[in-house]
Write a structure and sequence with these properties.
Largest sheet: 7 strands, mixed
Structural class: alpha/beta
Number of helices: 15
Strand content: 15-25%
Radius of gyration: 22 Å
Oligomer: single chain
Number of domains: 2
CATH topology of the largest domain: Aspartate Aminotransferase, domain 2
CATH class of the largest domain: Alpha Beta
Number of strands: 17
Shape: globular
Amino acid sequence: MNIDNIKKEFPIFNNKVHNNDLVYLDSANSSQKPKTVVDRIYDFYTKEFSNVGRSVHYLAVAATNLYENTRVSVQKYLNAKDKDEIVFTKGATEAINLVANTFGQKYLKEGDEVLITELEHHSNYVPWHYLRNSKGIKIEFAEINNDGEITLESIEKKITSKTKIIAITHISNVTGAILPIKEITKLAHSKNIPILVDGCQGAPHLKLDMQDLDCDFYAISCHKMYGPTGLGILYAKKKWLEDLPPYQGGGGMIKEVKKEGISYGDLPNKYEAGTMATAQVIAFNESIKFLEKIGIKNIVSHEKELMEYGLEILKKNNSVKIIGNPKNKGSVISFTIEGVHPHDIATILDEDGVAIRAGHHCCQILHEKLGLAATARASLGVYNVKSDFDQLNDSINKCKKIFDLK
């Protein structure tokens, strides 16, 4: 894999930041976009635009076919059994809300328990909190160990006869811990408990096979997969999509509407109400092609090598503390510098063109558990190289010098 050629496919790296080359280490937040994705959006709006699933004229039929082609591409990429198991949403947040709302409406009652973890992003906590307020359910938290991991044992310990669903991240966006989803799913299913996986960090960095993982629901954020913003994907086993009620009402999700009642559309239309993010869906097909061209195995290998290099450098840097030490780690390094607020770290690094994220990363429960208000985070994409970590380390040393640290 020639990484230099890959980086050239991303137009943003032609630009300077404060007269420096851009070192982008914020892909866990949102990845940059290859030119093929950007061009596809432009071409659709200038040459092919129409709404989908409505009209029968040439542009509408062509746009509908392109839209559905992406659904098939996602099905194949995830190894889903059926293209109707792929639902387009406006983001992973909406995908999780869709499951929480519909599953909660049909199956959850007062006193029932939803099991999540201390690693969860707010998007996989707040929707369940709404149900706690409206239906009186309970939320249980599987606890992290000293390495910032969630083990199978920590999940099993929290399961009770009242556990109705497990909602869990695939990769922590703070510690980088990769959770044993396949084993957790097997455990859950042995107790007839469905499982929802927040795959925002898993989808860009791991080989995904829904038949192997066997989870019931998997939520994806397309803008973290080198795709457009405003688009997410919910993979759900067909039995659940057939069984659960619709999430939103409107055009496109109905079959027949009468004064006396309504019948809903076939899958997946039942869950795609209103005008969808057509340009984004069509452009996301280019993101999948981009990932397939490189090969997910090559991406995993490349990022693993970079992570080992980056961790080695930062662990040698005095005053830098790495957050979490999971045995199985994804492409995220969160850290602190003694005596320096993470926002100050990020601001000083930005002066050198180094883009990281600082804050609680939408994981306040985890940060509270760790006794931290915030952390700095460097996260990888396929365009990163070892020299990016060299620059990160140099900029951290500059930061330490400003704060008179050794």
